[in-house]
Predict the 3D structure of the following.
Amino acid sequence: MASEGIKKDEAGASSDGGASSEESKKPGLLEQTTSSTSTSAEWLSKMFTGAMKLEKEEKPPSLLDAVTFEGIARYILSDKCKKIVTMAGAGISTSAGIPDFRSPGTGLYDNLQKYNLPNPQAVFDISYFRENPEPFFILCKQLYPTKAFKPTPCHYFIKLLEKKGKLLTHFTQNIDTLERVTDLSDEKLVEAHGTFNTGHCTQCLAEYGRDWMRDEIFSERKIPKCTKEECNGVVKPDIVFFGECLPKKFSQHIKDVNDCDLLIIMGTSLVVHPFASLTSRTRDDVPRLYINMTNTEKMDPLMALLGGGGGDFDFDNEDNIRDVFWQGTCDDGCQALADLLGWGEELKKLVKEEHARIDKQNSTEEKTVPTKAKV
Ligand code: CNA
């Protein structure tokens, strides 16, 4: 749980280690590392005071009748839970065939040796991209949202929450656009790290559409180049790289987390800030359900305290009034939750019908659209 001082800051300000320049106040994408924590004595002392203040605060009464998965399900069905915010990461799309970043063995970071990068994150680092965009465009073919990828049961569970009138907002770190394929309403969807829907020239800022971007990415030319006269700049899809600002829609919707009755976090290691710090923006009594293959015990506790993120969960604390961890796949977790809610069959039917519809649509469309690329 972050101190009130941190909550009042802009999303990115709490993740920059207290740096004071104007540039650093922008909500740029930042991976949590120990080197990002400032050593400023003044700053540490302020945070320490905040932490001490928090210890003295009394815990509010629990909104759950039991701090369990079943307790969360009963709460969702009650009148107390009208506004649910969901937060997702790459783990909700791995069962669709899209690798995440950090899963050992299968994650993208474990499979980048052939690109000779200074570090795995460099492929999504804007400074590195400006010097050498080629590794990104090679990798991009693996992540590109082609029709070979179908939304998962977890994606359809989020859509079901909307259909039931319970979803306030869905924040996703994913760039695969699978939420759009489920027809989730645009006003409920915050694609915090951008999407492949559009692209911009890094020199003259000319905008390019989805079809142009896709054709260029899959063409023999290795790097999409601006076609405007005398420009020839590299055209980058509008996905947010480390070191870039998040879309405006992200900051516009942060208030939804402050207002929500339940936060469901799925398929994310909660390492990338400011996204990860959303978990600490709820009211202190708001239940938080984390569905993930792995727990976040490796979080740096100081960073978690400062910026929020996975480390601020109370799973193992005796006085935990609100946090529930469900370990396993997002699909299984969502199906188990839907079963408890009495929506299990509806979810299965929705997935089956929608997958059949997508298959049919794909088979009738012209075969000009590339399928999943092998790189
Ligand atoms: P990450 O750091 O790779 O973490 C993924 C998390 O999901 C890990 O904790 C895994 O244990 C967990 N996980 C993996 N598979 C499952 C599963 N089936 N069920 C439950 N949990 C699972 O990825 P984050 O999203 O936390 O990191 C943020 C980055 C990843 C964002 O900037 C994204 O843009 C980026 N990314 C997105 C995609 C995509 O759009 N599908 C793919 C790869 C990376």
Summary: The two ends are 42 Å apart (CA to CA). Residues 48 and 120 are 33 Å apart (CA to CA).
